[in-house]
Structures are given as structure tokens and as C-alpha cells.
Amino acid sequence: MLTITRKLEFDAGHRIPDHKSQCRNLHGHRYTLEITLTGQVIAAEGNSDNGMIMDFSDVKALAKEHLVDVWDHAFLVYEKDTAVKEFLASLPNHKTVVIDRIPTVENLAAVAFDILKAAYKDRYGTGLKLHKLVLHETPNCWAEITDN
Ligand SMILES: Nc1nc2c(c(=O)[nH]1)N=C([C@H](O)[C@H](O)COP(=O)(O)OP(=O)(O)OP(=O)(O)O)CN2
Ligand SMILES: [Zn+2]
């Protein structure tokens, strides 16, 4: 299978409220996102994206619009983490993203996959689709999710 992968980075805060150790504290990460797409290679002489599955700049633009700019410098808070949710709501103009599950790297990768799957789906009639997403929380810890 032929794929292309675009890497982007963003910063976000989170906490894992029931964690046994450090991760129950408010803290942040520089997340690294790897987006892998598959689809037919575009064959259209004279087109800017001739010979590409998708121009990397378009991969980046869609990722930013639908996910990266939404999560960058936001605090990603679990919807049932009432104490932190209320605190963040008390801060004027604070960038907060409420997540319907605990913001572990596994869950954030799954949420990101669903968002980006819809964003890339068959934009050119070439079967373009999100194949895999990797989300690094630290250089040493990451989750991967693949389309099934
Ligand atoms: N399965 C998971 N385990 C942990 C998660 C997670 O999302 N899924 N998250 C955390 C913490 O939030 C944190 O992101 C990881 O911290 P840590 O284990 O300290 O990671 P480091 O890379 O900084 O660890 P080093 O020991 O410095 O390499 C915890 N667990
Ligand atoms: Zn963390």
C-alpha cells in the first residue's frame, strides 16, 4: 500500500484525574501528530498535485483547520472533570476543549482520528482516506490508530 505521512506539532494542557501518579496534576505536552493518508496518485497533467496522493501543504492546511488550530494552546479537559472544567470556565477567554473521554494519548488519538477521517474523506474522488494516525505525547510515549 502506498501512503504519505505529514507530521505536525501542537502544545496542549491536560490531566488524567484518577491517575496514580504525576499525571493527575495539570500539565502540558508538545504533542506530535503523524497523519498517514492513502489513495490513488493523482494523474492530471499540468495540475499542481499531479503525481501526488495529496499535496503535503493541503494535508497540513486541513489538519490545522479541523484539529491542530483547535487544540493548540488549549487545555483538553475531560467532560466529567468538574473541578477543572469549572476552574477553566472562570478564566476569561481561556481556550478550553472539552473531551468526552479522559484525555489519555489513546483517547486523544481516537478523537483526532474521527475528526480527521471526516476531513480527508475522498476529497478528490481518488479514494483518499486517513489510513493511520500516530499521536506522541512525549518523545517516549505515543498511541497509534489505524483505519479498520
Ligand atoms: N497508557 C498511558 N499511560 C500514560 C498516559 C497516557 O496517556 N496513556 N499519560 C501519562 C502522562 O500524562 C504523561 O504524558 C506521560 O508521562 P511519563 O510517563 O512521565 O512520560 P515521559 O516520556 O515524560 O517519561 P520518561 O520516564 O521521562 O521517559 C502517563 N501514563
Ligand atoms: Zn500528560
How many domains is the backbone divided into?
Answer: 1
Indicate the percent of residues in helices. 25-40%
Termini separation: 14 Å
Structural class: alpha/beta
Strand order of the largest sheet: 4-3-1-2-5-6
Q: Briefly note the CATH topology name.
A: Tetrahydropterin Synthase, Chain A
What's the mean pLDDT score? 97
Instruction: Give a short account of the largest sheet.
Output: 6 strands, mixed
Helix/strand order, N-terminal first: EEHEHEHEE
Return the CATH class. Answer: Alpha Beta
Q: Which hetero compounds are present in the coordinates?
A: ligand LPXRUNBV, zinc ion
Shape assignment: elongated
Number of helices: 3
GO molecular function: 6-carboxytetrahydropterin synthase activity; metal ion binding
Cofactor: Zn(2+)
Catalytic activity: 7,8-dihydroneopterin 3'-triphosphate + H2O = 6-carboxy-5,6,7,8-tetrahydropterin + triphosphate + acetaldehyde + 2 H(+)
InterPro entries: 6-PTP_synth/QueD, 6-PTP_synth/QueD_sf
General description of the model:
With 148 residues, this protein is of the alpha/beta class. The chain has a single domain, classed as 6-pyruvoyl tetrahydropterin synthase/QueD (Tetrahydropterin Synthase, Chain A), CATH 3.30.479.10. Strands 4-3-1-2-5-6 form a six-stranded mixed sheet. Helix 1 crosses helix 3. It starts with a strand and ends with a strand. Pfam families: PTPS. Its EC number is 4.-.-.-. One of its GO terms (molecular function) is 6-carboxytetrahydropterin synthase activity. It comes from Pseudoduganella flava. Pathway: Purine metabolism; 7-cyano-7-deazaguanine biosynthesis.
